[in-house]
Specification:
The chain is an alpha/beta fold. The chain is built from eight helices and 17 strands. It has two domains: 171 residues, 3-Layer(bba) Sandwich (FAD/NAD(P)-binding domain), CATH 3.50.50; 112 residues, FAD/NAD(P)-binding domain (3-Layer(bba) Sandwich), CATH 3.50.50. The strands form five sheets. It has a five-stranded parallel sheet with strand order 3-2-1-7-17, with helices on one face. A four-stranded parallel sheet has the order 11-10-9-15. It has a three-stranded antiparallel sheet with strand order 4-5-6, with no helix packed on it. The structure holds flavin-adenine dinucleotide (FAD).
């Protein structure tokens, strides 16, 4: 099966690129394994144009409908392998092989969640949130926990002070530097005296049990535990990635491997719907211009 571009990943980045490429009259395939981060968004209030908010599943459904309207083919499945095929690439999905001279990687990332039961449900109920830029506004004046190593969680805790004067850093560190408590107190953040030994979701939030059995209740918890960037298909071909694992690209979303572009969370460290859409527009336009002309008539 031959296409002008295969897009790996049918989240906001991949679907937006598919719409652009479809409107450039290119033959495009989106391969999608179906676990977009956007599926976890209960309601986004920072995506431009939706003043009343929009849920991630609703947004994905509309993006997909739009891409299909312009002729994008969709294939549900996982691209397991990508091999060089002349100047282009051959992608394996189960027993099928898809070929294209251009590939757009839009595979996103997976947040590392706290080891606790019921994480998905807690995310749906907004007692666990991952992205302060996305939704800290919705946590205004709430009791907020930021959970991670002091080094990683401190900047996020400071960011949360814009929204609440009840911010606690729940450390994962086994030993706590006493200077950290002073530093955090200076910006109005409380440092819990120990790492929590238990962190169950409760009806209206999260209950952290510390080592001495003290219980702390929070309305919302922001984990800062890192992420797994799904860049394996291109890193196996030698693409450069940064220290977080995100693909390094240029101002046209080109990776360091010829004819492979990247967009969305797999690239950026500002992991946002609007950034994914912006990357996709840039990548799709560059891909169209790089392909042989498709003049009409
Ligand atoms: C709880 C939560 C709330 C959020 N709220 C907001 C918000 O309010 N505003 C905002 O701007 N952002 C928000 N975000 C972030 C937003 O969801 C992401 O920035 C956005 O989804 C990134 O889009 P993407 O297309 O790059 O990746 P994704 O949406 O993650 O899509 C990647 C797709 O690629 C597929 N895939 C991966 N590997 C393969 C493979 N090998 N073969 C085939 N398919 C593959 C996956 O299955 C997935 O469907 C939130 C995220 C979370 C988790």
């Amino acid at each position: 099966m031959n296409f002008e571009c295969v897009i790996i990943g049918g989240g906001p980045a991949g679907l937006t690129a598919a719409t652009y490429l479809g409107r450039f009259r290119r033959k495009v395939l989106v391969i999608d394994a179906g676990d977009s981060r956007a599926l976890q968004i209960p309601e986004s209030h920072n995506y431009p144009g939706f003043a009343e908010g929009i849920s991630g599943p609703d947004l994905l459904r509309e993006l997909r409908r739009q891409a299909e309207q312009y002729g994008a083919d969709m294939l549900q499945g996982t691209a397991e392998d990508m091999l060089r095929d002349g100047d282009g690439y051959a992608l394996k999905v189960g027993r099928r092989t898809m070929r294209a001279p251009r590939v757009l990687l839009a595979t996103g990332l997976i947040d590392i969640s706290p080891a606790m039961p019921g994480v998905r449900q807690a995310v749906a109920q907004t007692s666990i949130r991952y992205c302060p830029v996305c939704d800290a506004y919705e946590a205004t004046d709430k009791a907020i926990a930021v959970y991670g190593s002091i080094e990683d969680a401190e900047p996020k805790a400071a960011f949360m002070r814009t929204y609440s004067d009840r911010v606690t850093l729940l450390p994962t560190d086994s030993e706590i530097d006493p200077r950290a408590a002073e530093r955090l107190a200076a910006i109005g953040v409380t440092l819990a005296p120990s790492a929590p030994r238990d962190l169950p979701p409760v009806d209206d939030g999260i209950c952290a049990t510390l080592q001495d059995c003290e219980e702390l209740r929070f309305d919302v918890l922001y984990p800062v535990l890192g992420c797994d960037v799904r860049a394996g298909l291109v890193s196996a071909l030698g693409a450069r990635c940064n220290d977080v694992g995100c693909v390094v690209d240029d101002d046209k979303q080109r990776t360091t491997v010829a004819n492979i572009y990247a967009a969305g969370d797999v690239v950026s460290d500002l992991h946002q719907l609007s950034v994914a859409a912006g990357h996709a527009a840039i990548a799709a336009t560059a891909i169209h211009k790089s392909l042989p002309n498709n003049f009409r008539g």
